[in-house]
Amino acid sequence: MKCERHQRLTLVPDRSLTVPPDDQRHIRILPYVSTLAEFHAYDPKAAQVAGMLRDAIQTMAPELRVEHVGSTSVPGCGGKGIVDLAVLYPDGFLARARAILDDLGFRKQGGRDPFPETRPMRVGCVEHDGQPFRIHAHVIASGSDEHQELVWFREALRARSELRHAYEERKRAILASGINDSVEYCLAKEEFITDALKRRKFAS
Fold it and tell me: In CATH terms, is domain 15-203 a member of 3.30.460.10?
């Protein structure tokens, strides 16, 4: 996540994305609709959507790996409800990763302050069980600092309920202060993530 510039760690495979065979079907990527930031309770269906997208992407390009990251990857953690994916590519496969997402129907990020094409984000929307889920597909170099920091923060939120609750409280406080622009909201919560990463560094 751009505003969540998330040090080195042993990467932990995300085993929460196991998808039943009946759900491993073609996914139609719909146009993305930007909205003001709102707080939504955790929805376990987001992990199902992430798993189906992972399978679709990795079937088309086995050299890529997809991780579900962000708040929707953490059971019990509320937030904007956007399904964040880290689409991880090996050296030399950035253009391939972009092309795969474009072929699946993802669009380039719009709005102000978009990610550069050297570290792109693609967006889309998926309907699952009659419910829309917005998708942010972050194209990230496998093993990079950003990749490892995203995974560390996800695993820390999953393992530590006090950190998860504090993160939710920070999000609610930001919205209560009147910040509901998505970019400004993202920037406002960056301090929380940066502080968590600093504490991890000092503890190691």
Answer: yes
- Long-range pairs, 109-118, Cβ under 8 A, ≥24: 110/32, 110/34, 111/34, 111/182, 111/183, 112/183, 113/2, 113/183, 115/2, 118/94
Rg (CA), the chain: 16
Reported as a pLDDT band with limits 50, 70 and 90, residue 15 is: very low
Model pLDDT for residues 128-164, shown as the tens digit of each residue: 999 999 999 999 999 999 999 999 999 999 999 999 9
Question: For 72-83, what is each residue's pLDDT tens digit?
Answer: 999 999 999 999
Measure the CA–CA gap between 131 and 116, rounded to whole angstroms.
30
Phi, psi of 197 (to 5 degrees): -70, -35
**From CA 147, how far away is CA 116, in angstroms rounded?**
17
Distance from C-alpha of 201 to C-alpha of 204, rounded to nearest angstrom: 5
Chain centroid, CA 32 distance in Å: 15
CB 16 within 8 A of CB 47: yes
Two structure tokens written together for 170: 């920070």
Domain boundaries defined on the chain: 15-203
**What is the rounded CA–CA span in Å between residue 23 and residue 47?**
12
Q: How many residues does the chain have?
A: 204
pLDDT digits (tens, 9 = 90+) for 170-197: 999 999 999 999 999 999 999 999 999 9
Backbone angles phi, psi at 14, to 5 degrees: -85, 105
